[in-house]
Backbone:
């Protein structure tokens, strides 16, 4: 089980998306997943080994690292990628349910199982809202856990068993900060894309509904 | 998962590229991505572990490494490759959109549609003309910009393309000016020069492709103009019909205006 599963999931979702949805899949794939796997993972690979405190007291480094990095950036990033891609599964399941129903009843119940209308539209809108919510939650979590999106090169630690306030140095802080911005910027872009897609779909289908009612009234 | 997925996406675009575009793609995959993954990542693999400073002061090595390598060469190259490959997505999206439209027309039963089945539409190779020409040309233009920007960023950040053996560091908490030694400087210099050279070749290929597309565009235009000159009678008939229509429209407009004012 690896990231290939997520890649296949995103490709599957692409089939049932709108134009903006496909741009979202491309952004997630190129600027988030690929950057994470090809580049970011290696930066945080030895973060604990390279975390150095100005003291020889055994256990002090471990305790300080744990205090300042309760959950590592890279793990939060991975969780965010997984949680953001998962709501799209709702759409895939709904389409599969529709196709199953058609098979079961042996007749054409829907104009096209993959077309976004009726119940599938609601599912699609819910998945968009969930995706946006998850993005915002993770961005806020990052901000709160690490006091903004900055990574200092020095942190001062005075937790037992460290005897006094001790200087601890983080490895590659500038590089990590650059890639943190690489995490934040596509996240914000994805939020904007999701909100645009939501507005576009609501607007399109309200107009459709209104026109249908208008036609009915005229008849 | 690795760069293979990128290869799948770009491979799809390859079908609709010019010959120079296909050469560019080959150079990208064999001389850049493959070299990055197979060789360069190993050369830079132990860069911080083997970055040694002539001091026992804890933290000095970390701080000096961060000062001299704000972003590692290998990460910059990977980013450059991702950014340079992204414009091809524009072309892939445009082609997908065209295919989607043709499939829609085919399903509606449009008699103008010349395809026998959907498979033919899927396998069809689109010619680079019309709006696809503009998308393709913009993608080459953006590629050029990204390549140039990253090459300049390299040059600016590392004061040239050479990796020195020794760096003098006096960032706090290093007590004095301290000698720090980079691991494998010669090997890193060789790979840096190699990657820069291949980047330059890619820039040249992109410029050549851009010139080729522009030349083709202007030649096609002059051909069309030449063809239209050779059929003057037909054109004159059309023009005179249009003139009649215009006169009728302007007359009716004038009458309407007069009607309103009186």
Residues:
């Amino acid at each position: 089980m690896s990231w290939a599963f997520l890649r296949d999931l995103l490709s599957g979702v692409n089939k049932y998306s709108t134009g903006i949805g496909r741009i979202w899949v491309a952004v997630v794939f190129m600027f988030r997943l690929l950057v994470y796997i090809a580049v970011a993972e290696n930066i945080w690979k030895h973060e604990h080994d390279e975390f150095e405190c100005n003291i020889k007291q055994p256990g002090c480094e471990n305790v300080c690292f744990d205090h300042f990095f309760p959950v590592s950036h890279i793990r939060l990033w991975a969780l965010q990628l997984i949680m953001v891609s998962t709501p799209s599964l709702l759409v895939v399941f709904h389409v599969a349910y529709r196709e199953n129903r058609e098979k079961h009843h042996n007749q054409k119940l829907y104009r096209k199982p993959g077309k976004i209308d009726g119940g599938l539209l609601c599912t699609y809108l819910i998945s968009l809202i969930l995706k946006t919510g998850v993005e915002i939650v993770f961005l806020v979590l990052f901000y709160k856990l690490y006091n903004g999106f900055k990574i200092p090169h020095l942190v001062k630690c005075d937790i037992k068993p460290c005897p006094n306030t001790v200087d601890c140095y983080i490895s590659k802080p500038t590089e990590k900060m650059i890639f943190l911005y690489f995490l934040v910027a596509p996240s914000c872009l994805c939020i904007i894309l999701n909100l645009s897609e939501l507005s576009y779909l609501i607007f399109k289908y309200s107009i459709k509904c209104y026109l249908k009612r208008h036609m009915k009234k005229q008849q | 998962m690795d760069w293979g997925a990128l290869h799948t996406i770009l491979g799809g675009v390859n079908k609709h590229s010019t010959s120079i575009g296909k050469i560019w793609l080959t150079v990208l995959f064999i001389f850049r991505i493959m070299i990055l993954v197979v060789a360069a990542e190993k050369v830079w693999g132990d860069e911080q572990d083997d970055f040694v400073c002539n001091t026992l002061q804890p933290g000095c090595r970390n701080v000096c490494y961060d000062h001299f390598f704000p972003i590692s060469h290998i990460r910059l190259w990977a980013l450059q490759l991702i950014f340079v490959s992204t414009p091809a997505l524009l072309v892939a999206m445009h082609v997908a959109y065209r295919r989607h439209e043709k499939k829609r027309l085919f399903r509606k039963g449009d008699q103008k549609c010349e395809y026998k089945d959907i498979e033919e539409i899927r396998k069809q190779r689109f010619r680079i003309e019309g709006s696809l020409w503009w998308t393709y040309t913009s993608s080459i233009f953006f590629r050029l910009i990204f390549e140039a920007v990253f090459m300049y960023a390299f040059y600016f950040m590392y004061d040239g393309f050479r990796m020195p053996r020794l760096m003098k560091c006096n960032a706090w908490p290093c007590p004095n000016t301290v000698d720090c030694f980079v691991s494998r400087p010669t090997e890193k210099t060789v790979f840096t020069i190699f990657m820069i050279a291949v980047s330059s070749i890619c820039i040249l290929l992109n410029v050549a492709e851009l010139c080729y597309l522009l030349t083709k565009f202007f030649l096609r235009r002059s051909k069309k103009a030449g063809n239209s000159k050779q059929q003057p009678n037909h054109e004159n008939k059309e023009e005179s019909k249009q003139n009649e229509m215009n006169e009728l429209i302007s007359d009716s407009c004038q009458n309407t205006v007069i009607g309103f004012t009186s």
User: Anything to note?
Assistant: Residues 185-230 of chain B form the longest helix (46 residues).
